[in-house]
Write a structure and sequence with these properties.
heterodimer, A: mainly alpha, globular, B: alpha/beta, Rossmann fold, 4-stranded antiparallel β-sheet, 10 strands, ABC_transptr_urea_ATP-bd_UrtD (chain B), nucleotide-binding (chain B)
């Protein structure tokens, strides 16, 4: 019992090893650093998938371990993306504006530069003034801090209000849906200061970097893999000790934990806020790979997908969340990307672009009914089988 | 003996129904007390009030040497102050081992950060093992508690309460659903626990109460009907009328 955390959780090492091998494999096969078997756009898909796995781990911590079915974590994901996106867009636009103005006889004044950037960024929403929230957009350090702070503070305030009133179960899920819907509707407005439904774009172009996308895509892929590994390690450590005992206790019997003398609300708030911060980081890594972020990304459906991934992968086991997310999101992009062959039935042709959601929904229902432990449950089954044959 | 818990003039109504009606009740340090009464007498509500789950409409609840008022304190704070509660149904964390259950209950800092960085010391392990021994679960120490029998779960929950090192233990129908042998063991655990702390047992079963051999309080319609030894209260005409006569 007193062995180290890694020794007690061999699955952590196995996961990290697989992640490292996967990263190495993709690098070797990539266009940027390897033999070019994997296209740059597919490297981006894989990198984005790693980011989704990261938010899935956060979802597993809040739902699978603590028992709070949050259907709003993509709000935090999107906010993280917006925070880094602001700097990316500002800085790149500034360099373009400065370059184009430097052709003149006189060097451009700061006012000219600012107006130029404002016109470039906010022209689409009929404005050229910088909204207040862009005050620190020129500072990478601050915007990186906001990636964690903004989702964290939103979660802290929202969670404090909800948990203090002892809102639980389906009511809390509905509240979190309302939160992400509210954020999405707000961001859709041009007056929100984040370019309304246009969102932020061109995020794949890093300011001041001339390296081709085939190389940049791998940088982000590595960063995503690294952060996923660290996130996995952190969450696995959190759930392995007494803290993990307490939050699983909250999931299984909240009242009992309370009468043991633990302040259940504080624990819930801590986990909710931490998972929001992780989600923010995942989003900040995701959107530069996607290239664009707009308010549709934080629509309620996104957070529901997240719950579906984790459920299919298996709640309450971190590798389950990762497997479910990687599997479902990759299969999903295959089906909806038009690559899946249509199925002609004679009287009707099944087009997967339209029917994929039906298939996914069916899978979700089947998993919920017949395999509540999801794909991760299969691994448990194999482990038990092996134990039995060993014994 | 000094007073550990003093409940005076407490009244609680649910939608006009007076579940507890001007109840006054005292318990001393290291006292074993049985609370009996027919269904709806307010036994469980009484526990809810003392542990902070239900807030009384009127009255005072004073706790400990310093006579702190428990009204308005959260459940967690009251538990930390030294009141442990056992539920009617055995409620242990079924997916966790006996060891994990006891370790969680062990009297330690309950703040999230302290818990996050908590590393059980040798004394903690020894303490938990000793507790498991005390409640007869030493053999099941590393088993998942969901696999335990009904009686074993009841003991585990009592063990978790003991691990909290409370000054007052509130125990709701500990013998329900137990075999005679299990009852005997439960009696022994409770009597032993009451040597160093106050124990209040709510019970239906007269035979069990007789075996506890302690002062008895009879509740009826949310108030104390009679108090004294079991023989004394069973001879009381009011008690016979409302409870035993039926």
């Amino acid at each position: 019992m007193n062995r180290s955390f890694i020794a007690r959780n061999p699955s952590v090492l196995i996961f990290l090893a697989i992640l490292a091998l996967f990263t190495l494999g993709v690098t070797v096969l990539s266009e940027g650093f390897g033999i070019g078997l994997i296209s740059t756009s597919f490297v981006k898909v894989l990198g984005k998938t790693l980011c989704l796995c990261l938010i899935a781990i956060a979802m597993d911590l809040i739902w699978g371990y603590t028992g709070i079915l949050s259907l709003g974590h993509f709000a935090f994901f999107g906010l993280g993306g917006y925070m880094l996106g602001m700097w990316l867009m500002y800085e790149r636009t500034r360099q373009i504006v400065v370059n184009s103005l430097s052709d003149g006889v006189l060097p451009p004044t700061p006012e000219e530069v600012t107006t130029g950037i404002g016109n470039q960024i906010f022209g689409v929403v009929g404005s050229s003034d910088f909204p207040l929230i862009w005050t620190f957009a020129d500072s990478l350090v601050l915007q990186l801090a906001f990636v964690v702070l903004v989702p964290g503070i939103l979660a802290l305030v929202f969670g404090w209000l909800a948990f203090r009133s002892r809102v639980t179960g389906v009511y809390l899920s509905i509240l979190t849906q309302a939160m992400t819907l509210g954020l999405s509707l707000y961001l859709f407005q041009n007056a929100s200061g984040l370019r309304g439904n246009n969102g932020l774009s061109g995020l794949q172009n890093l300011p001041g970097i001339t390296a081709p996308q085939s190389v940049v895509s791998l940088w982000f892929f590595w960063a995503s893999a690294l952060v996923l590994g660290l996130g996995y390690l952190l969450v696995a450590w959190i759930v392995s000790g007494k803290f993990g005992s307490v939050i699983r206790g909250i999931r299984d019997n909240e009242a009992r934990v309370r009468f043991l003398g633990y302040s259940v609300e504080t624990y819930k708030l801590a986990v909710f806020t931490l998972t929001a911060c992780i989600s923010g980081i995942a989003g900040a890594l995701y959107y530069p790979q996607a290239g664009i972020i707009n308010p549709a990304e934080v629509a309620p459906i996104a957070s529901i997908y997240l719950a579906v991934w984790v459920a299919i992968g298996g709640r309450g086991r971190l590798y389950g969340a990762v497997i479910g997310t990687a599997f479902v999101s990759l299969v999903s992009s295959w089906f909806t990307g038009g690559q899946a062959p249509d199925v002609p039935l004679g009287f009707y042709t099944v087009k997967w672009v339209d029917w994929w959601l039906v298939l996914l929904g069916l899978c979700f229902v089947l998993v919920t009914l017949y395999a509540p432990n999801g794909i991760g449950g299969l691994i448990d089954l194999l482990k038990r089988k092996r134990k039995e044959t060993d014994a | 003996m000094s007073t550990l818990l003093e409940v005076s003039g407490v009244t609680v109504s649910f939608d006009g129904f007076r579940a507890i009606n001007n109840l006054s009740f005292q318990i001393a340090d290291a006292e074993l007390r049985a609370v009996i009464g027919p269904n709806g007498a307010g036994k469980t509500t009484f526990m809810d009030i003392v542990t902070g789950k239900t807030r009384p409409d009127e009255g005072h609840i004073l706790w400990g040497d310093k006579s702190i008022s428990l009204i308005g304190m959260s459940e967690a704070k009251i538990a930390q102050a030294g009141i442990g509660r056992k539920f009617q149904k055995p409620t242990v964390f079924e997916e966790q081992t006996v060891q994990e259950n006891l370790m969680m209950a062990l009297r330690k800092d309950r703040a999230p950060l302290a818990v996050l960085f908590f590393k059980p010391s040798k004394t903690d392990f020894a303490c938990v093992e000793e507790l498991a021994d005390q409640i007869g679960l030493a053999d099941a120490f590393l088993r998942v508690s969901g696999e335990l029998s009904h009686g074993q779960k009841q003991w585990l929950e009592i063990g978790m309460l003991l691990a909290q090192e409370p000054q007052l233990l509130l125990v709701d129908e500990p013998a329900a659903g137990m075999t005679p042998a299990e009852r005997e063991k439960t009696t022994a655990i409770l009597v032993d626990a009451a040597k160093t702390r106050a124990v209040v047992v709510v019970e239906h079963d007269m035979e069990f109460v007789r075996r506890l051999n302690c002062k008895v309080t009879v509740l009826h319609e949310g108030a104390v009907l009679a108090e004294g030894s079991l023989d004394h209260v069973t001879k009381n005409q009011d008690v016979i009328d409302v409870y035993l006569g039926r």
